[in-house]
Specification:
The complex is a heterodimer of chains A (547) and B (261). Helices cover 60% and strands 6% of the residues of chain A. In chain A, the strands form four sheets. Chain A has a three-stranded antiparallel beta sheet with strand order 7-8-9. In chain A, helix 5 packs across helix 10. The C terminus of chain A is likely disordered. A two-stranded antiparallel ribbon of chain B has the order 1-2. With 261 residues, chain B is an all-alpha fold. In chain B, strand 1 and strand 2 form a beta hairpin. Chain B is elongated and about 110 Å long. Chain B starts with a helix and ends with a helix. About 2% of the residues of chain B have low confidence. The chains are: A mainly alpha (547), B mainly alpha (261). The interface between A and B is large, with 72 and 58 residues.
Chain lengths: 547, 261
């Protein structure tokens, strides 16, 4: 640290701050942090930026929203509701939409940002999964990410329910049903949440506390830890020449990454502003005040809750039975079980995979999805399973648009609920293995250049080109887990669990395309050696088709 | 009174009582139904005659020569002029093809022909008439009151702003934004296809006018928040954010991480 006294005003201010805060060391350290550059690494950033936009717009909305359920007669400018009895919450939402300057724009921005936030969170999570970025040392951050998805759903749902319009009330009624469906304690849980029989007069203010304080506080805390871990663990990187498990190749935070990130934030902000300016979202005035008797056709939750709603739409009605005269109903409650299953499977995956592969090493180089066919296939099966439930939530709209029978839509979704993941698993795995074989082919024999040459004796051949060493490295330097047979423990016994692990390992890694070895590469290039393939050059050699 | 008291256990007392009761309900019913059949337009005998010719040529195959109904189509005695005006006026009848429900198409007959067929069917038995103009004037209705009625009675199938929705087995409740005031009224009055009947005891003509005023208001008002995305609710919004919003975001990420070559 410099000790010479500063002479300029800026220098003095800097010295004043530095001598009291001592932040220069931290800034220097953080500023030199390296982040690799790839589009798929920016999806988490989108989630962060939309979250910031949510906080900004949400704060604006709190200035005018009245989280109260006192009844009044609407006297605002919206004619089709003039004089209609409604709650203060709904009336203030209408006031934000029609009377507060810029209110509708900010409200729409808040809602669109929420949808984009959850979408960004989802594909960010998928990117992490399919590239194996959840492996040691990042398992805890994966779990925090899953908690963030659940918190995001909670934040979204509590917000969706605040305006106290017909749509949000219908949504709450389903939550009420879910809670009441919990065996034994359901009714009590529901009464506890609603302060008595649904809908009561407490729920909006309770949801408000959850929506603007408790859930966002948890989200901010979890996001903070999530980002801290990214700094501690360093960012993962794609395989490539010069990329090792011990380094990170990319751009430093200061100035490049920070500048890009700042610009990116404003692009997302601008995009959301454009969307909010031109496209309506949740026109609450259409729905009218909540009244427990009407339900509108096409009543759906926001997209990220849709999969649970879809599950409720396809589950048959006979999953209810009586034990000693007490009804146990899975008709509605099972949506919670499905959610627990999906979240549980996501949370368990890194540990299951480490157990099956016996691979407990640190991984900072990502897998290309094709290079771990079984994981990718399981991931796609889960995606399809989710998507089937998700689509089932809009089965009524699909039926109308495609002139189908609503009943048939339900049967189709029920079938796909079981068959979809299996088909997706098989298809994905085969595609991955095929792509791996293609990679081998390209590495060993070059790629088709599209150039046809005619040899002096009249034969036609297509020229095959080989990749540069950098490209070959990126294609071939991956780890390919192998089937690990059951191994005896120190006493020489093979435990029951070890046997199971071996069976799963076999299922996972029996089908395998091994990465190209150096010997294979040398041999392949030796075959074509006459034609001047220069394995050591960076320019990319050429070789005629040799066979 | 003494006379009545003395005879109240007479064997015929029950019969007399039943007769009186039936007469009263019947009479009251007649009063109410004639009320609702108050015709907006008077049909001449010639209208009925022309209508019958059109009926025999175009409708009798399914509805029977005397509109008594066949196994392919319901009887039309007592359905009233309103039902004919709605079904033929919206092009649903004559049926183009059989299916879960009759589809809207360009009407096959002129206003005059439709009116003649209505006259014929109305002549077969009392039924709801084509509504009078005063009940079709949306500007006289109260859209707020209509909105309440609409949410309670109609939104279940037609969606809160009448965007339509699915029913069972391929049937559906159509979008109402383009339906004329007269046809909206007639649909409520006659309950075509799967729709329940909202007669004048359910919804008075004034209330029907309020509902019409609400439908007109929500389908014609400019959208405050920008493009409506079909007024279909969260599904359309979710599709939009994934296929437009997120796609644009990914485009930006690819652009930002692209290297100049």
């Amino acid at each position: 640290m410099s000790t010479a006294p500063a002479t300029t005003a800026v220098g003095k201010a800097a010295q004043f701050t530095e001598s009291r805060v001592g932040a220069s060391k931290m800034v220097k350290e953080f500023g030199r942090k390296i982040f690799p550059s790839h589009w798929s690494f920016m999806l988490g950033e989108v989630a962060l930026y939309t979250f910031i936009i949510l906080i900004l717009t949400g704060t604006f909305l709190t200035f005018w929203f009245k989280p109260a359920m006192g009844e009044l007669h609407y006297e605002g400018p919206y004619i089709p509701l003039k004089g209609v009895e409604m709650s203060e919450a709904y009336a203030s939402t209408l006031a934000i939409s029609f009377e507060i300057r810029g209110g509708l724009f900010i409200r729409q921005m808040h809602h669109w940002a929420a949808l984009l936030f959850m979408a960004a969170v989802s594909i960010h999570a998928l990117r992490i999964f399919f590239t194996g970025a959840f492996r040691r040392p990042r398992e805890i951050n994966w779990l925090i990410g899953i908690a963030l998805i659940a918190l995001g759903m909670g934040a979204g749902f509590t917000g969706y329910s605040l305006p106290d319009d017909l749509l949000s009330g219908n949504g709450l009624r389903i939550i009420d049903g879910l809670l009441k469906g919990i065996p034994l304690v359901g009714t009590y849980v529901s009464f506890f949440l609603f302060g008595g029989e649904f809908p009561g007069i407490d729920i909006v203010s309770r949801l408000y506390s959850l929506h603007i304080m408790i859930v966002p506080a948890l989200l901010i805390a979890a996001i903070g830890v999530h980002l801290m871990f990214v700094v501690i663990h360093k960012h993962t990187q794609w395989p490539g020449a010069g990329h090792t498990e011990k380094n990170v190749v990319g751009e430093p935070v200061l100035p490049t990454f920070a500048a890009k990130g700042g610009g990116f934030f404003f692009m997302i902000f601008g995009l959301l502003a454009l969307i909010s300016g031109f496209f309506t979202i949740n026109p609450v005035w259409n729905y009218g005040p909540y009244d427990p008797s009407p339900v509108s056709a096409g009543t759906q939750p926001d997209w990220y809750i849709g999969w649970m709603d879809g599950f409720l739409r396809i589950i048959p009605g006979w999953t209810e039975f009586y034990i000693f005269g007490w009804p146990i109903s899975f008709n509605i409650f099972s949506a919670l079980l499905i959610a627990a299953l999906l979240f549980g499977a996501m949370a368990a995956w890194p540990f299951v995979e480490a157990w099956v592969t016996k691979d407990h090493r640190e991984h900072h180089i990502l897998d290309r999805p094709r290079n771990n066919p079984t994981r990718t296939a399981f991931g796609m099966a889960a995606v399809v399973w989710y998507a089937v439930m998700w689509a089932a939530a809009s089965g009524d709209l699909m039926a109308v648009f495609f002139h189908m029978s609503l009943n048939d839509m339900i049967y189709i979704f029920r079938f796909l609920f079981f068959a979809g993941p299996i088909i997706a698993y098989i298809v994905t795995k085969r595609i991955c293995l095929g792509l791996q074989r293609k990679d081998r082919e390209i590495i060993l024999h070059g790629y088709e250049s599209g150039e046809i040459i005619r040899l002096p004796h009249g034969e036609y051949q297509e020229r095959h080109k080989v990749h540069t060493d950098h490209e070959v490295w990126a294609l071939s330097s991956f780890e390919s887990p192998e089937y690990v047979p059951a191994e005896p423990d120190p006493d020489g016994k093979i435990s029951k669990w070890e046997r199971r692990r071996a069976a799963i390992s076999k299922f996972f890694y029996e089908d395998r395309v091994a990465p190209v070895t150096k010997d294979e590469l040398d041999a392949a290039h030796h075959d074509h050696g006459d034609h001047g393939v220069d394995a050591g050059s960076h320019s990319g050699g050429e070789l005629p088709r040799g066979h | 009174m003494k006379l009545l008291a003395a005879r109240r256990r007479h064997p015929m007392a029950l019969v007399v009582l039943l007769l009186v009761g039936l007469l009263m309900t019947g009479g009251a019913y007649a009063v109410f139904t004639t009320n609702s059949t108050a015709s907006a337009e008077e049909y001449t005998a010639q209208d009925v005659e022309e209508g019958e010719k059109l009926f025999v040529t175009n409708c009798a195959t399914c509805h029977g020569m005397n509109a008594e109904g066949t196994e392919n189509g319901p009887g039309l005695v007592g359905v009233g002029a309103a039902a004919v005006d709605f079904q033929v006026g919206t092009g649903r009848m004559p049926l183009q093809m059989s299916g879960p429900q009759a589809q809207v198409k360009t009407p096959q007959f002129s206003e005059e022909q439709i009116s003649q067929m209505s006259a014929y069917v109305a002549s077969l038995g009392p039924g709801p008439a084509v509504p009078e103009d005063e009940y079709l004037d949306a500007s006289q209705g109260d859209p707020a009151a209509g909105g309440g009625l609409f949410r309670t009675n109609c939104a279940m199938c037609h969606n809160v702003v009448g965007s339509g929705g699915a029913l069972t087995r391929g049937k559906y409740a159509p979008n109402l934004s383009e339906v004329s005031e007269k046809h909206l009224y007639e649909a409520m009055q006659t309950g075509p296809q799967n729709m329940p009947i909202f007669n004048d005891a359910n919804l008075t003509p004034e209330q029907k006018r309020d509902v019409i005023a609400y439908v007109r208001e929500v389908s014609e008002q400019p959208s405050a928040g920008g493009a409506k995305l079909g007024s279909l609710g969260p599904v359309a919004e979710g599709l939009f954010i994934w296929f437009f919003g997120l796609a644009a975001v990914i485009g930006i990420t690819v652009w930002l991480s692209a290297r100049s070559k």
